[in-house]
Structure formats: structure tokens, C-alpha cells
Sequence to fold (705 residues):
Amino acid sequence: MVGEARHRSTGVPQGWYAGLARDRRFRLLRTRFHRLAVGIVGSFLGWYFLYIWLSAFARDFMARPVIGHINVALLLGVLQFVSTFALAWRYSRYARRMLDPLSEALRDEAAAMEAELEHAERLAAERRRIENWTPPRRAAHRRTRGEW
Amino acid sequence: MTPVLTFGLFLLFIVITLGITFWARANTRGTDDFYAGGRAFSGAQNGLALAGDYMSAASFLGIAGIIALSGYDGFLYSIGFLVAWLLTLLLVELMRNAGRFTMADVLSYRVRHQPRVRTAAVASTVTVSVFYLLAQMVGAGALVSLLLRLSTDTAKIITIVAVGAMMIIYVMFGGMKGTTWVQIIKAVLLMGGTLALTVMVLSRFGFNLSDMLGAAADNSGKDGFLRPGGRFGKEVAGDPLGTLLNKLDFISLALALVLGTAGLPHIVSRFFTVPDARAARTSVNWAIGLVGVFYLMTLALGFGASALVGQQAIAAQDPAGNTAALLLAQALGGDLLLAFIGAVAFATILAVVSGLVLASSTSLAHDYFGHVLMFGRPRESQEVAVARFSSVVIGVLAIALAVIARHQNVAFLVALAFAMAASANLPAILLSLFWRRFNSAGVVAGIYGGLGGSLLLVVLSPVVSGKVDPVTGASLSLLPKGIDFHVFPLENPGLVSIPFGFLCAVVGALLSGEKVDPERYEELSVRSLTGTGSHRAGPRRSRRRRGRRANDARGVT
Fold:
């Protein structure tokens, strides 16, 4: 029952989203996002766990001083921060340039289509209302119950 | 003098935030306002609030203390807490587009059995939130006895109850609008306070990081203060197995930290307070910047405390080192700065617990009451009333548990909350978004499996029983010495429970034989990637309201 209501509330005909999903631009958007996401997740998790592994198993290497009292461990730790900022920046730039235009175009088209559907639906509802119109009944019986 | 000043500053914070709360109360009408602050916050505002929700007292006081006492290893926490945000950045837009108020909205979008999925999501949201809450509130009790120098038991109880009462007021009256402003103010205060401390510490060493580290290492009197291994993954001489287990425990912690953030309920519920997915991305970028700068500064706080205050003084006040940042403030700026940092610490606790209570009451009202009990058709006013009521229930529960556990060392609960979020919520979110064959049974199995698995592993771990101090022979576990049923050797369950959560989700989905609706999956992927039909702010009518109007027309109310 819940599933049925939910489908009704989306208000779009069957197959509408499947059609959008087959759209060439949507497939491009999905491929681009997946490639980007896999790349970013792979690089940051790999780099983070390399660092964790070094901290656990290569402690002499990590303790090697670089500048004064700053050792490899501290340097790599700060580099984790730098890489996080860099990856976030890279993701946002790529998304702005390569993903947003596609998703915007698709969203606008979908909104236009939805507006059209809604308009048609409203017209149909109006027609039904006119066709099913019956003259209102008198409210005479109410007066006898003393509700006034 | 200082306690009075701290109390005064904290009172000022309370007065201002209460004013905001009552302004928010007057401007909160429906569910969009109460759960999502009207979706009207800008990316920068929400970014500040995300950072405010995330930077808990455990990280502010706790990490500074660990660095001050154990050296370099405390910094590993900082790194894990930050790197985790990249995963959040990748998921935020998809979840913002697909969901409405909660994680359960995303999980239940494409499945056949909504009520089961929603109930599971509520169970995990509430469990994670309550564990995290407990850690923060017991911390508040401990903090007051250190800060106001009231070591009586009554003072602890009064603090816990007062903090709990305040958080209930914020959430009940302010909803998301009020809570978000509390977070923003807290984030600004915390960043300001930390920045001031950092600059003052570094100026003592002529802004030479190396000199500060050298002084900290010398003052610690420990060998290898600046190298890994002071706290995590300790080498046990003559026991290679013990050493390996210690190191695996450390890796387990790192895994939970990096994978848990994206599934934390109070973070997820913030994704929906902005107008659209792009603003959500901006807000996570802001949060990454703020959280990154903050955790870099923990280096200066921790090492600075070790160099300027000294380990004996820190350990004498609190063996866990939680007062390191406060003692540092006193050493640098006298009583005034100590009072300010103390008030900031209270504000931090208060803001984080409010965020948690809001997330769990949203989940209870929207998911459990609204969608399970009322089949998705409650009146908005009913739902908001239930949300307000749930915030009181969750708040009172948290207060009661915190009062009971006030003498325990519950610091492990923060890591446990991260592990549970990573084992229960993350598999369900990822597989819902990206795996075509995923279904209700998979979500349910994944959530209960991950949640139950991590809880069971902790109960069977040395955290609960059987860990004994090798020198004094005293019990280091929750249970007293003599009771020992620990079977699982690691203190952090993540290494086992996270793969187990994923496994349960996949196996549950494959074994159930439940049919998948391919159209709904396409719909979810189109919607999550493009934002068609997502819930927006402003004049555009939301789908729900349109649905209700249609129901009214049909005579369903």
C-alpha cells in the first residue's frame, strides 16, 4: 500500500525515469561521476592507509628527522591535510566544469516536462469536475435538526 | 575568580543562544522548518554549522590531551577525522538530491518494504546518537569538576542535568533553525579561541615549529615523543602476537574514523538544510577547510601544552589529559583566557549534543512516527509535535544514562559511534545508491548486522572486561577486575565489523529473493545525480505537499 501511494505521489508516468536514464547525456554524467569518485576514493584511501601502515610498521623510517625536530611522520601527516584540501578542490572544480552543466540541462528538461504533465493533469481534472457536476442538494433537512 | 568568569561567559553564550532559539521558535512552522531549517541556509553558513557539529569537545580537549601526553600519536586522530570528509564530499550531493530529511529517506527510496527499512534506519540513528551523546555528556560532567574546581558528585550530576536541559530546550523550541545558529556561533567561538591559542603558542617559539616540537619532546622526558607508537599499536617486548594485535587495533580505529563520518546521523541531517545540491557541496567544502585548519591547530595546542605546561602538571589534574588545552590557556593568557576557553569548551559540548538530539528526534518523528506508524501521511503539525516530544524523550534518556555512567571512562564511545556508523549506515547508503540489485532485506540485514556486530564485538573486547594494568594490577576495563569474558582481542571493532556490515548487506540482498523494481533504481540514480524532483526551498511546492493535496481531494486525510 505504501509502495503504491509512493508511486502515485511521484506523479510521472511509467517509464519516464527509465527514459531519462537512457539519455546519452545522463549516461555520460553517470560515467564521469563514477570515474571521478572511484579515482578520488582510491587515491585518498590508498594514501591514508599507506600512511597508517607506515605509522604502524615502519616507525624507524617515520622517526627520521627532516628539518630540525620535524620528522617524516609529521611531514607526511601534514601532507595528508594538504592532499585532502587538494582533492576536495579537484573534485569541486571537476564537478563545476564537467558535471554541473550536464545535470543542469537534464534537470531543466525534466522540470519543463513535469510542468507540462502537471498542466495536462490539471486540465483533465477540470474536465472531470465539469462532467461529474451534479446540482447541489437543498440544505432544508438541516434546519429541522436545529443546527442554526 | 576564574570559575565565576567562566560561568559568566558561558551564561552570556546561553542568553544569546536562547534568544536565537526563541526567534527560531517563532519562525518554525512545518516540517521543512523544524527538520531542515527551511532549507534556507547558505553553503557557508551550513559549512560552519557542519564544522560546529563535528568538532566535539572530545576532539578539542581530547586530542590536545593525547598529543600533550603521548606525543605524535594524538595527531593520528586529527588526520582520520579530516580525511573522512572526502568521502562525505562525494556522497553529499547524491544524498541531498535523493533524500528529504534523513538517511532513511535515501535508503527507503527504491525498496519495496519501506517500514522495515525505516525502522532499521531509526534503530541505527538512535543508537549511534545516544552512544555519542553519552560520551559528550559524561565529558561535560568531568569538565565542570576540573574547570570550576568542584569535585563533588552533586556538581557532576547538576552539570549533566543542566547541559541536558539546555540541549532539550534548543532542539524542542529551536528545531533545525535554532540548532544551526547555535552551531555557527559555537564554530566561530571555537575557531577563534583555538586560533588565538595557536598564535600565542607559536609566538613563544618565534613561529618556529621545529623549536616548539623540540621543547615539547625535551619537556616530555620520553624517548620517541615525536614518533608514532606512543599510544597506538604499542610494541610489546617479547610478544610479537601482542604487538601485532596492538597494531591491528590501531588500523581498526583508523578505518572506523575514516569511514564513519559520512554515516553519522547529525552530519547527514545537515545535508538537507541548504537549498540545493550545489550549496550542499559548497558547505562540505567549507567544512573541510574549517575542520582542516582546526585539526592542524591541535598540533600547536598539544605540543604547546607539553612544552609550556609540562606533562606532570597535566597528568596531575587529569590522567587522561583532557585539561591540557585549558592549562595551556592559563599559562598563556592567565585567568581571562582560561575562562574564555572553558566557556568555549562548554559551548562546544552543548552544541554537539543538541545536534545529536535533533538528528535522533528527527529520525524518530519523520521515519518512525511519520512513515512507519502513520504510513507516510501524518499531518505536518502532528509530525513536528512528535519530533518535539521525541527530543525530550531522547534528552531525558541521555541524561539518565550519563548520570549512571558519570564515573566511567567513556572516551571509547566516540570511536565506537564512528565504528557503528561505518559498519551499519555506510554499507546501506553506498549499496542503495550504487548497486542495482540491492533491496529491503539487504538494507535491514546490513544495518542490524553492522550495528549488532560492532556492539557485540565491543562487549566481548578488553574495553568491557579483562584488561588489567600490568603494573598496578587494577582493572582498565568497564567491569571490575576478576570478571573476564573477553574473546575478541581488539578494542576497536571496525576492522571486523565494517566488512561484516557490508557482507550482511550483500548476502541479505542476494538471499532474500525479493524482486527489485528497476524503474525505482533508475529513478533514484537520475534523481541523485541530476537533482530532478529534489526537495527545495522557496516557492516551489514540495512533492509531499502536492501528494497530500491529492490525498485530500480523494478524501484521504
Remarks:
- Residues 72-131 of chain A form the longest helix (60 residues).
